[in-house]
Amino acid sequence: MATRLQFENSCEVGVFSKLTNAYCLVAIGGSENFYSTFESELADAIPIVKTSIGGTRIIGRLCAGNKNGLLVPHTTTDQELQHLRNSLPDQVVVQRIDERLSALGNCIACNDHVALAHTDLDRETEEMIADVLGVEVFRQTIAGNILVGSYCAFSNRGGLVHPHTSIEDLDELSTLLQVPLVAGSVNRGSEVIAAGMTVNDWTAFCGSDTTATELSVIESVFKLREAQPSAIVDEMRKSLIDSYV
Amino acid sequence: MAEEAGMFMVTQTIGSVLCCKCGIPMAPNSANMCVKCLRSEVDITEGLQKNVIIIHCPECDTYLQPPRTWVKAQLESKELLTFCVKRLKNLNKVRLVNAEFIWTEPHSKRIKVKLKIQKEVLNGAILEQSYVVEFVQQENMCESCSRVQANPDQWVAAVQLRQHVSHRRTFFYLEQLILKHGAAAAAIKIKQMDQGIDFFFSNRSHAVKFGEFIGKVAPVKSRHDKQLVSHDSKSNNYNYKYTFSVEICPICREDLICLPPKVAASLGNLGPLVICTKVTSSIALLDPFTLRLCFLDADQYWRASFKSLLTSRQLVEYIVLDVEIVSSEVNVGGSKYVLADAQVARVSDFGKNDTIFSIRTHLGHLLSPGDYALGYDLYGANGNDSELEKHKGLILPDAILIKKSYEEKRQKKRGKPRAWKLKSLDMEVDDRGRGDPEKMNSEYEQFLKDLEENPDMRFNISLYRNREYQPSEMTSVADGDDLPSIPVEELLADLALSEEEDEGDDMRE
Questions:
Q1: Are B396 and B470 in contact (CB under 8 A)?
Q2: Quick check: helix, strand or coil at residue B324?
Q3: Mutation target among B3, B9, B18, B24 for the A interface, most CBs of A within 10 A
Q4: How far apart (Å, rounded) are the C-alpha atoms in residues A58 and A53?
Q5: N or C: which terminal CB in chain A sees fewer CB atoms within 10 Å?
Q6: Chain A contact for B17 (CB, 8 A cutoff)
Q7: ipTM rounded to 2 decimals
Q8: Which residues, at least 6 apart from B442, have a Cβ–Cβ distance to it below 8 Å?
Q9: Do residues B248 and B268 make contact, with C-beta atoms less than 8 angstroms apart?
């Protein structure tokens, strides 16, 4: 199910939040409305953590993560790192990496199996990504833009890319990522997909400017209509219980 | 980048996305909305004028461009289109691609212009839209038309042309010159006065231009004056009436002149008796005994203004009895002269008494015994010119012949119309009891005869074919000696603006 919301009158919800299959990070806002929308959707399934990174609220664009781990830039303070380690589930590895391109959310787009990376990323960072997130890393561009983390958003079910992506590029990316992809826009024609929305396997959150057409495209490509959170989370819980016992 | 390096590039086919508003598939653009949704979203004609009032003068069909200029334009013309587009404000914020008229009824006082404009919207998408602007035409007379309506006789500058002689030959000739060159096209009124013509203009520069034109074709002396009509003390505007007084020198063609001693000396001792052969912007003086031709400039003339001794009114007819050529043919100033000794008698004397004069004449090439000639009778003339006394030891000849006379032959043709005619200026005649109509007619007739006899006088004049003239066969048989007449090639066919197609078409013969 896709939900429309705003963070303090801004429609760029992907900037102020990070949603994965195991956890959700939200920025600290003036009013609690943003947080409560997430809570009403996700509370019984995954933990929702309020945080800041490097003292800023643009956490969605600074960190990259999936159900296996979370990568934060070197600007993260020790307290924030500690807070994250405490609040997130134990199997999520939180790692601070030293990388010149510190806006990791703009440089890396990932789901639970595969990641697209900025072409100029360091070799060590790439290895770190493969290690911590447990994914296969591909250096790619989207519609000629190197900030892959901004111009596409994908989950394990499907993905949405920049509207100007050519058909050949779409085919190539789809083969790499092994998910169906579609070119489209969000927030009434905005091309910066990942900044305008955030998605996981059963739910998505978009800016309130998103039109009905865009919403239907998102719901169909990410297969959100029949998704049930319980099924996915139950699998996770089973593994948790297993290890506990 | 990669293309310039010569690397292999995969062909990129642009896919289609859904319009974010209406959901129809379309090619992606910077707004990611289909054109219709974009147009419904953004109106680029917002803030542009759709109704404008323009002011039109019905008298001269011009439109007002504030603050003061009136632009002449026809309906649906290029000038009107540029004018209308200029009157629209804020049009520099958008890019104008096309403008055209939509037809409206002419008396509806509405002009509709369809404009196509382009403007950038949202994030880089350029939208093109056309819209209609309606111009309401309000009638208001322009300043010059209202001035003309209020007082049609009002003039600002006047040129008063005068020549202090007793005949009007110069003015007939000038009239034809003015017609040919169209110098009086700007005149609002032309009035014929005693010894001259007055021209009235609505603009000082027109009067100056006309005065300069006259200065080029006749030796003149001019002065100008102005009279204050009104004065606006707030804006320091002064309205004047300007008057130009142009005086033409009284020496005419065929006049006999006795030059003052100083002038004769300055011209190289030209014999004091000279004949004036041609008057343009300078006077040509011919000494009939030495066949020397000299030119006198307008300035030179007015410095020592002398009058003629005898004018063409006083020409007397002589009959030539004998001609003896003395010198060979001389080409002086474009015309031929031959010095000859001739025995002549006045026609009034001929048959009555034996008064015969032996004179020297310059017309040896034209005269043969039995011809008639016109000349000045110095034998019988009472010369009270003070100049004659200044020349000591001057012997006056008995007669000086000026030109050959065709009077006899003209008698045969009297009453028959000519093959050509002249146009005339639209003049107001000041009838105050002067000017005998018969005298005027005979002077005009004399002028026409002059035109026939002198080809170089015809040079500057336009002659028109007379449509009523039917050449009759009888005269062509009877003509022995050829009467000087104007060859048909010189005549212009008058442009007749009539219903008949064939007559109105030929302009030049």
A1: no
A2: strand
A3: B18
A4: 8
A5: C
A6: yes
A7: 0.78
A8: none
A9: no
